[in-house]
Write a structure and sequence with these properties.
Chain A is an alpha/beta fold. Chain A is built from nine helices and 14 strands. Chain A has a six-stranded mixed beta sheet, sandwiched between helices. By secondary structure, chain B is mostly helical. Chain B has one domain. The longest helix of chain B has about 40 residues. The model of chain B has no long low-confidence stretch (mean pLDDT about 95). The chains are: A alpha/beta, B mainly alpha. The complex binds adenosine-5'-diphosphate and magnesium ion (MG).
């Protein structure tokens, strides 16, 4: 990105972060859920947000999506201040971001196909394109066979994958994951994590990954997906160094208490972090 | 019971929010996209779905009204006016009001619990995240459905009421059907029809949809919250129907000669 300078020469300007929170405070009633949180996600980055339950992780994601408004501070998507953006602008920006909600939040009156197709049918995409795209994303998450099922017929892990497919259908540049593996068995969790790693490494999707499970966080920070000859392999780093574009953010009672790569997190001598990691 | 009564400040805020929702829904009703399929589904649910209870309500209201008034009328030697009394009571008040109360109980509760569960399971947030305006997608079709179906349901209720009255008048009181029907028809004027079969039902339909959707959308606190919202939707819309009926009647009487 560049812009004309005063004397006519062009200078390079660092692109605005995809998502930015500036000193955001959020209350629910009298409870301060977020307290002066600043956060930025740049293109190509993955940020892993850790924190105990009730620490404000979901609230943070909802603010990023413009689903909640901050009581003070600013939320920006691609440099646009959501507090000043009109509803129309918001509607245009939101599809750039995909979100997987904590409990999947599938539309329970719609079939898997209709759930995944939702975004496309809303913008009036033609039927053939919709069918192809839905098949494609359901194929990506490995659920082509469930296309005609209703959400009530799916297991927890399948619901998460449908939710992932629904968010991916508009090819977002950023994905927000709200505890995508919570309540799932280790094998199903592994499967979801692999999908997320593939999105990051093979498709270049930036992401914010919220979790209270440390194991998932370290998996994401230490494994990479490599595609060769149509096959995807997962390679594990030796675990001492964090992947270059993956950073940890730790929340506690609505405040950021840590930000950085995982090797630094592991060495932290903060009592709360030590206890969390242990 | 103390929990049922909101503080004055909260109550004023709630009235304001409900009015705002009504305003937004009306404005969005005229803007694209039009969710024709959702509107038709809702119309089917509100209209066809309520037909049976509305017919039963109308029939027995008309029947009991005839039974009560005929004995009263005979004391004044005015049995011939029974039809008029039944028709006027039905069309002016009982048809629109009882019809709306039944719809509030059947449809309003359903709307509140459906939207309420969508809120607590984050389906509404998911919808917003996918770029869809929930007021347009969820509230407007419900509003349009009740506003358009309520007058039709009221016509059905009143017709069934007059038939119910006829059954009692002929079968039990042994009056001639012609006498009853003529008296019923002649008793009604233009203002009874427009007021009772159009103005009131349209207004009551809007009340049920707006109040119920608002109750659903403000749900918090999981499954119990959904139950609370459902009760609230029925209680508040029923009360509003009865209160606004008084003022609408005053307005209609002022305009009729
Ligand atoms: N809609 C809401 N109304 C009131 N309180 C809320 C609401 N959503 C969340 N909270 C409260 O805010 C705090 C943070 O919630 P949340 O962001 O969901 O935490 P986390 O996702 O980290 O578990 C919790 O104490 C929760 O009870
Ligand atoms: Mg959460």
């Amino acid at each position: 990105m560049s812009r004309a300078n005063g004397d006519g020469s062009r200078v390079r300007v660092a692109p605005a972060p995809l998502i930015e929170l500036r000193n955001v405070t959020k209350y629910y009633g009298d409870v301060r859920v977020l307290d002066g949180v600043s956060f930025a996600l740049h293109e190509g980055q993955t940020k892993i947000v850790l924190g105990g339950s009730g620490s404000g992780k979901s609230t943070m994601l909802k603010l990023m999506m413009g689903l909640e408004t901050p009581d003070s501070g600013q939320v920006l998507i691609e440099g646009v201040d959501l507090g000043r953006a009109g509803e129309r602008q918001l509607m245009r920006l939101r599809p750039r971001i995909g979100m997987v909600f904590q409990e999947s939040a599938l539309f329970d009156s719609l079939s898997v196909f209709e759930n995944v197709a939702f975004r496309l049918s809303e913008v009036g995409t033609d039927e053939d394109t919709i069918r192809d795209r839905v098949r494609e994303v359901l194929g990506f998450v490995g659920l082509e066979d469930a296309i005609d099922k209703m959400p009530a017929e799916l297991s927890g892990g399948m619901k998460r994958r449908v939710a992932l497919a629904r968010a991916l259908v508009s090819r977002p540049a950023v994905m927000l994951y709200d505890e995508p593996t919570a309540g799932l068995d280790p094998i199903t969790s592994r499967r979801i994590n692999e999908l997320i790693i593939r999105l990051r490494d093979v498709r270049g999707v930036s992401g914010v990954f919220v979790t209270h499970r440390l194991r998932d966080a370290f998996t994401l920070a230490s494994e990479i997906a490599v595609e060769s000859g149509g096959r995807v392999r997962f390679i594990r780093e030796d675990g001492t160094f964090c992947l270059p574009h993956t950073r940890f953010v730790m929340l506690r009672n609505g405040r950021t208490i840590f930000e950085g790569p995982d090797e630094v997190l592991r060495r932290s001598d903060d009592a709360y972090i030590r206890q969390f990691i242990a | 019971m103390a929990g049922m009564l909101p503080s004055p400040k909260a109550a004023v805020l709630e009235v304001q929010e409900t009015a705002l929702l009504a305003f937004r829904a009306f404005r969005r009703a005229f803007r694209k996209p039009f969710y024709i399929r959702d509107i038709l589904t809702q119309m089917d649910h509100v209209g066809v779905g309520s037909l049976t209870i509305i017919m039963l309500t109308g029939f027995f209201t008309g029947a009991v009204l005839t039974l009560q008034s005929a004995s009263e009328m005979s004391r004044f030697g005015a049995v011939g006016l029974t039809g008029t009394l039944v028709a006027v009571s039905l069309v002016r008040e009982l048809g629109p009001v009882l019809g709306a109360l039944m719809v509030a109980g059947r449809v309003g509760s359903g709307m509140a619990s459906e939207l309420g569960s969508m809120i607590v399971t984050e389906q509404v947030n998911a919808m917003r995240a996918l770029g869809t305006d929930p007021i347009k997608k969820l509230v407007v079709p419900r509003l349009l459905a009740t506003v358009s179906m309520q007058p039709l349901l009221t016509v059905v209720a009143c017709s069934m009421g007059i038939i119910g009255g006829l059954a009692v008048a002929v079968g039990i009181l042994r009056t001639s059907p012609d006498l009853y029907l003529n008296s019923a028809w002649n008793g009604l004027d233009y203002y009874d029809i427009t007021g009772g079969l159009l103005v009131k039902p349209v207004f009551f339909g809007a009340v049920v949809a707006v109040v119920s959707c608002r109750c659903g959308m403000r749900t918090e606190g999981g499954t119990r919250g959904v139950g609370r919202s459902t009760t609230q939707a029925v209680v508040v819309s029923s009360l509003l129907i009865l209160v606004s009926d008084y003022f609408l009647t005053q307005l209609i009487l002022e305009y009729s000669p």
